Amino acid sequence: MKTFRNTIIMLLILGVLAGYYYYAKSTKKPAPSTNIINISKSKISFVDIKDAGNELAIKKNGSTYNVTKPVSYKADSTSTDDLFNSISGLKYSRKFTDTDVKKYGLDKSDFIISVSSNDGKKEDLIVGNKSPVGNSYYAKLKNSNYIYVVDASSIENLQITSNDTLFNYLDKDVYTISKDRISKITYTDSTGTYDIEKNKSGKWMYNGKEISSDNSEALLNDIVLLNPTGIDPNKKIVGNNSSFTLTISDGNKSEEVKFLTDDNATYYLQKNSTQIGLYISKDQLSSLLSDIKKVIK
């Protein structure tokens, strides 16, 4: 009888403890957010970073990203998605108020990150001096009195340090037609125009002669794996006799790219009659040009 009574008491105690646990869990207040930007990543439609005279602006339209400054071009979706994640997830370790923002480098900063949402909201984050204590920066939202202390690496990942930063956010595909859909390749240089075509049997032909599968496969790989080396923003050249044009087609659409050079070392890309300064080094083109010569010799 005593054992039974003890068991009942223990069950009652466990019930009370369990009830308290679930009550405390359901009424516990969530930890306050330390996010600085109050726009979620899914709602960001535009980001504009100004840093020491450099600028990078990217617009999102649906699931597509486009760089709008300093050039107008399709953005690399992976790098841009990471950028939007970094900005929306920017956190502070401490915040405080001080009317004298000058001593934190926040009065005339040349590093400003502007974020806009698809519902019309906009926030401007001003980045100031690096803190003398700890590896961090001071930052402040334009319409807030709070000064934030932010981890240095989080801020430095958003800096525009060179043309390489811009290049990182640009789409790297020279051609978009997939390898298996290419049915015609047209190469034009100062000596003439050369058409390489796939016949109805799926064989690649040039000038009435079949091209070996090894040579056609190598050429197709050269084309679809072609990527630019870097960018000189908005540089435009006319090109000399070493320049050439390579057009590919799938039977429904064609993609023409001019490779323009004035020094025979660097070739600037012109796509759809537009140059934004993307270039490819001669070394990177060597395999493509060599395989073209094998086919049309």
What does this structure look like?
It is a single chain. About 25% of the residues lie in helices and about 35% in strands. The protein is built from six helices and 18 strands. It has helices at about 1-25, 75-90, 150-155, 165-170, 215-225, 280-295, and strands at about 45-50, 55-60, 65-70, 75, 95, 110-115, 120-130, 135-140, 145-150, 185-190, 190-200, 205, 210, 230, 245-250, 255-260, 265-270, 280. α5 runs antiparallel to α6. A hairpin with a 4-residue loop joins β15 (about 245-250) and β16. It has two domains: about 40-170, no CATH class; about 180-295, Immunoglobulin-like. The longest helix is centred in the first third of the chain and has 26 residues, at about 1-25. It has a nine-stranded antiparallel sheet. The chain has a nine-stranded antiparallel sheet with strand order 13-12-11-10-15-16-17-18-14. The chain is an alpha+beta fold.
